[in-house]
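Q: Structure tokens for this one, please.
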Amino acid sequence: MRWLEYIIFLALVVGLVKPVGLYLARVSEAKPTFLDRALCPVETMLYRVFRIEPEREMSASVYILCFILFTVLNTVLLFAVLLLQAWLPGEPHDRYLTTPMTVDLAVNTAVSFATTTTWQAYGGETTLRYLAQVIGLVTQNFLAGAAGLAVGIAFIRGFARERSATIGNFWVDLVRATLWVLLPLSLIGSCALVWQGVPLNFAPYTEAHTLEGQLQSIAQGPVAALEFIKNLGTNGGGFFNANGAHPYANPTPLTNFLGLLAIAVLPAALTFTFGFWTNRRRSGWVLLGVMVMIFTFGLAVCDFAEKSVPSNLTALNVSGGNMEGKEARFGVGGSVLATVVTSNGATGSYNSMIDSYKPVGVIVPLMNMLLGEVVFGGLGTGLQSMVMLALVGVLLGGLMVGRTPEYLGKAITPSEAKLLALYALVTPFVVLILSSWAISTDMGRAGLGTNTGPHALTEVLFAYASNMANNGMTMAGLNANSVFYNMTTVLAMLAGRFGLVALALALAGRFAAQGRRPITLGTLPSDTVIFGVLVLGTIVLVGALSFLPALVLGPLVEFLRL
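A: Here is the predicted structure, written as tokens:
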């Protein structure tokens, strides 16, 4: 049954790639869609109110600047909402808000949601008022997700255009991504969640008496407003501390499955949009094929690790696999599928506790994030990471045959090669330095509690990999609500959001300015199985060279000790 669920999920994702990819292309090119009659007047009004000139396009540098300024503005506004939430009306009552919203926690949370990381060093039901969740977090889930999709579309334009000084208009891409993609899908998805039992209210917390005679507080709130867009916008931050494991946030296997589809379909569909715009459809399918191969391998490894009973419980005749930290309503299959999808999709909306996974099971989500979430990925960022690593493979292939490397008719000159090298080095540089700093100082080790040795290193490495990938997934054995972790994880979030996007769009701008070279006998074809193998080998090689020593000292040592 587990593998049947895996196969159905993957089949649905792949089957939706073409129609959704075509829709994204039409929306981004402002071609007619069935939603135009309702949304075009709203679009025109927004352009008028914010004085946007839709016909005026931007260079790559201006596009990057607008993206950064928009994210900074969102961060400041959310920071203000979080600090002022004590004066907001409505529930929950102050006695339930036991985690204080300190300045460093507010900074961390604001940056986290504005960058789609949604790393949460707090529990939502014990920290935030309903209005803070709706006005602050839900809004950012839409805006940050739309900004990421806009960047992905601009990145594709850089490959599709010839001799162009521009890659689009950020504000137009942002508005259309919000109105034509995120809003209608979120409305449908949120209604489906309400149908399945997810609350959508502003009621006080419910007080209930348990069978043991204890008093239990059951959190309420506008949960459905947040839960679907967190997945669709590849954000992942949960309304509750338990995130997708909470029965109000994710009550049934159906809601779990729908949430995972919301994470994967849009990013996967961008591979078709990429091939469609560049007139190299088969090249887009090759990239998708590499994604599917990596996804299937990671799923098989994680499933193999978690389906077996822990060795210390075999004598008790326990069956059903490693169910520690997993919800019975999802089982091993629904938990493993969610872990692999969310770690690949820049959406740390976990429904099981990764800290309870076996070491080999932990390696899969950890490597998914360290590799830049090249499988599906976030809105725009997954395709961006895949194409950038594919270009590294093309560069290496060209150097081996002594020919100027090119991809889709665009030459990779020394200037482009430098951008690719920087892109490949940013993640290991940030993650490994911050992890070393944390594990070697008292401030960093103070958050480890009872964890020591290889598992402690894994927890720290996992945290910074998650923030660098703008994912937000956590192993939860790390107490990250301290000034040290709140500030250092912010550094990783900003590097993952601004650093990688700036390099990718700079490269897209350079490609847009080039003409397209004709195909010759010496051209490396980008639509063959051999090219797919080259890309896959490059991903494995870059990951191994960057992170193998850290993995050996962490989860691999832990595996051998067990």
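A few notes: The mean pLDDT is 90. The first helix runs from residue 2 to 28.
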